[in-house]
Amino acid sequence: MKKPIRTKSGSPLPLGATITHQGVNFALFSRHASAVTLVIAPEARRQRGWIEIPLDPQANKTGDIWHILLSDIPLPLLYGYRVDGPDDRQENGHSYDARRILLDPYAKEIHSPDWGRSRTCLGSEPCCLLDRQVYDWEGDRPLNIPLRDSIIYELHVRGFTRHPSSGVDCPGTFRGIVEKIPYLTKLGITAVELMPVTEFDENEPIFTNPQTGERLKNFWGYSPLSFFAPKCSYSSDLLAPLTEFRDMVKALHRAGIEVILDIVYNHTAEGGADGPTTSFRGIDNTIYYLLDPWTRAYLNFSGCGNTCNCNHPIVRSLIMDALRWWVIDMHVDGFRFDLASILGRDSSGQVLSNPPVVERIAEDPVLADTKIIAEAWDAAGLYQVGQFSRHRRWAEWNGRFRDDVRAFVAGHAGTVPALATRIAGSSDLYQHSNRRPCNSINFVTSHDGFTLADLVSYNEKHNLMNGEDNRDGDNNNLSWNSGAEGPSSDKAVLNLRSRRVRTMATILLLSQGVPMLVAGDEFGRSQQGNNNAWCQDNAVSWIDWTLARTNKPLLRFFRKLIRLRKSHPVFRREDFFLYDGQGQKLEGQPLEILWQNLRPGEQDWSRECRTLAFHLIGADLQPADADFFVMLNGSPTEAARFVVPAASRGKNWGMLIDTGRRPPQDFVDPEHGDTVECGQTLLVANMGCMVLQSR
User: Fold this and answer.
1) Given 154, 244, 262, 338, the catalytic residue
2) Which residues on neighbouring strands pair with residue 88, listed in sequence order?
3) Which element (helix H / strand E) includes 426?
4) Which residue out of 199, 270, 375, 404 is catalytically annotated?
5) What is the mean pLDDT of each run of 10 residues along the chain (695 residues)?
6) CATH of domain 593-694
7) Which of 415, 541, 643, 647 could bridge 651 with an S-S bond, Cβ 3.0-4.6 Å?
8) Is 338 annotated as catalytic?
9) Domain 6-129 has CATH 3.80.10.10
10) Residue 604 is a catalytic residue
């Protein structure tokens, strides 16, 4: 630099690096540090020649916050911190090392190479950048789609368009998603849920493909380096990830699609004691992580080596600041909290009855219209589905819905009562806390586990390619291969698989609650039996868009199902069905749903029963809706004969869906379906379903 840098004391707030009219203010929290040095490279992305500015604890420290203001410095610039202090992990838990150049926890952008290239800067160079862009949102505002009207589509930014068949100009990027908006709007979903988009190091895994010897990648990204910075390699322009992310959000909003982020606040990429020191560990290890009070070893409730101390006031504020930034500055519509049960643990790992951070997220005024969804379990066995929070705003991934639907459509005994409860919105989980059906995020598949096509094609996981001798991944998949393991040319097997996929899709889209589907399930994407493809940056994880053409009938079925759900409020109730404890209609209340087995008025909740039907009555809704009669047969081998009840108000029934028929007759428009009379007997194929609509 030609001109000397002018410095001032600066301000302790806001934390992070902030551009002001006086210059750039830097503020970093570190309670136990003895010295802090700001390291800057005035020319962004310059590999050497940075400047080090020690902070004077008398002039540049307020309480536990170190701060300084720099004037007359060129923008853009790279920055980081050296933080010195005690290194006594086993005694007091501190882990300071002034040789490391650390990331600012509040950095909005982190210099990162293109996907797969070696990251040389982490820990050894300043690589944080300022958010210098003045972005024109062109009037963009949150869509605020009611949660009960939402249909969520989970996708991986890179995997969604990385396959050559995607046909986009910018594969594997935020812009690639924008190029696929016409597909998303035609499918009909209302929100995309993006797997982690904050910076992570895809090169961190030590595993290799046992067949090729190739080093595997952290493809999923559940290993955050930052709670803020969008991943540079998800941008087609490495110099503008913030702009490209905002462009994507704005374009999705214009198409009527919300953006939900899958965020990871339960652990970081620093891992256990043998992991890299990139930020939090070297800034204040005892504040940011849960440590054993005696050994000072990391408590590991995340399964990833460390656990964030989420209910410490400092960490809690970091989480809240990150959430607000994503909503205010990036216009994000909602969040799915990975392993959210960790948010409920105290500094010793014990489960709190009313966790401060969980309540604060729900009550924060900035987030008042933001969707908040918990993955209500953690890696240490804490399972809180239905009990994560009593606050009406918290929705949850309903793992019980997944398991009960899978078990029924795999022919398991004793599944009918649980299936009926899931279809009705899981009142057993949510009604006791005065919550609603929309607090249940219903799903049959997610990124974690089998795809829908694999769920009906494999009995066992096939994870050898992950390099862990098939030890990784869940062994309890509640799957059934329909008679042959893996790919098959047997027509009977293929027909059964197709029928089961469409039956599960029908249950998912016509149940009370909020449906979530995984990108590619709508046209039969397979992961070749891999149920833990976190490290597969290849065709195993990339969506093969040729399937959208070869499996066009299945894609048509999904599109029509989504359109059906969106067209009829009877599937999107605000409240639970009105019943007493014995499942009887409350006196004086309108009839809303009738359950039956094979004949009207006859129910069978026995362990041996594998059939279920229900009559949804829409006549008393405001405005009035149609009636629907849904018949489900969970028998692996036998067809079932159902007797049709009377539709309300003297209407007739029309055949709408029959997964036992070949496309396109499996889903017909209401006005074109066969007329079905009251009292008529219908034959529902094994593992099939039928849906009638009144007309």
Assistant:
1) 338
2) 94
3) none
4) 375
5) 80 97 96 98 69 97 98 89 96 96 97 88 91 92 97 98 98 98 98 98 94 95 97 94 98 98 98 96 98 96 96 98 98 98 95 96 98 96 95 97 98 97 97 93 98 98 97 96 98 98 98 98 98 97 98 98 98 85 56 94 97 94 93 98 92 96 95 93 98 96
6) 2.60.40.1180
7) 647
8) yes
9) no
10) no
